[in-house]
Design brief:
Layout (H helix, E strand, L loop, with lengths): L59 H13 L2 H15 L3 H7 L1 H19 L3 H12 L4 H12 L6 H20 L10 H24 L10 H29 L5 H20 L3
Length: 277
């Protein structure tokens, strides 16, 4: 599932955010957007944490707890692993959300494009949809086209993980609802996609940073897959709860409002796990 857990993860003594993070570009859904009407201009960038130095051995406690979970399957160890990851390894839940700002910006772009495709409000998107329909694109081709439209396409691990997360989220939706029309999709299904995408992104983030615990030789391949699936499902369920709660309480008329909701949902998710410590 998702990203490989073989990364050694980030070190201490460096900034919480890699210096290249803000260089990642999310594709614009219009070829020549009007600067006054381009929804992406509404997104207010979260302050970065590049100037804050992470402590040495920042993920020690998180890795120990995740190792305990990998061996035993104990849910409390998993909660503590995520809590330590957030509080000590990343300097707090809000920092985790900021570190995942590429994920939330990508989700905003997905939201904008799918709504534009459904409502026909953007000429570039209308022509794009019409071309896919005219050539009778397969569902696999449509998924690839959507991923290319909404996710960054550079060479970083973050960008690769983002594309994998989007692919998994869309395919999960199609598995649940084989008749879904991705170009005429309901608001509930758009939100379902966003929730699923962020669940995969959070899971991949942890695997990249502290996932070495799943590589221990004593863990059988079957147990490894089982534990990783459980961790993903556990994270995804909490993100779903937080996002649904915020969705009901807040407006999402602009991209900045949506981005703020997604950032708050991620921060609230990891804050919940900090409560296990």
């Amino acid at each position: 599932m998702g990203t490989s857990a073989s990364s050694n993860g980030p070190l201490g003594g460096v900034s919480f955010d890699p210096p290249w993070l803000d260089d990642i570009e999310i594709p614009s859904h219009a070829t020549q957007p009007d600067p006054q009407n381009d929804p992406s201009n509404d997104v207010q960038e979260e302050p970065t944490t590049q100037d804050i130095v992470a402590p040495q051995r920042r993920f020690k406690s998180a890795r120990q707890s995740l190792g305990n979970y990998a061996r035993s399957g104990n849910r409390e160890s998993l909660r503590k692993a995520i809590g330590h990851y957030s509080k000590t390894g990343m300097g707090g839940a809000r920092n985790v959300a900021k570190r995942m700002r590429v994920s939330t910006r990508t989700a905003v772009t997905l939201y904008d494009i799918l709504k534009s495709a459904r409502e026909g409000t953007d000429q570039v998107i209308r022509e794009w949809v019409s071309s896919l329909i005219a050539r009778k694109a397969t569902i696999g081709e449509i998924i690839d086209e959507i991923i290319a439209k909404v996710t960054p396409n550079g060479g970083s691990i973050d960008e690769s993980a983002c594309r994998n997360s989007m692919d998994s989220a869309i395919r999960d939706l199609i598995t649940r609802d084989p008749e879904v029309n991705l170009f005429n999709i309901s608001d509930d299904n758009i939100w379902s996609l966003i929730e699923s995408f962020l669940g995969y992104e959070a899971f991949n983030r942890l695997c990249l940073d502290i996932g070495q615990s799943f590589e221990q030789s004593s863990l059988s391949p079957r147990d490894k897959v089982t534990r990783m699936n459980e961790m993903h499902d556990y994270l995804a369920a909490e993100i779903y709860e937080q996002l649904e709660s915020l969705r009901q309480k807040n407006q999402t008329d602009t991209s900045s409002q949506l981005n703020s909701i997604l950032q708050d949902a991620l921060a609230n998710t990891f804050f919940v796990y900090e409560g296990a410590l």
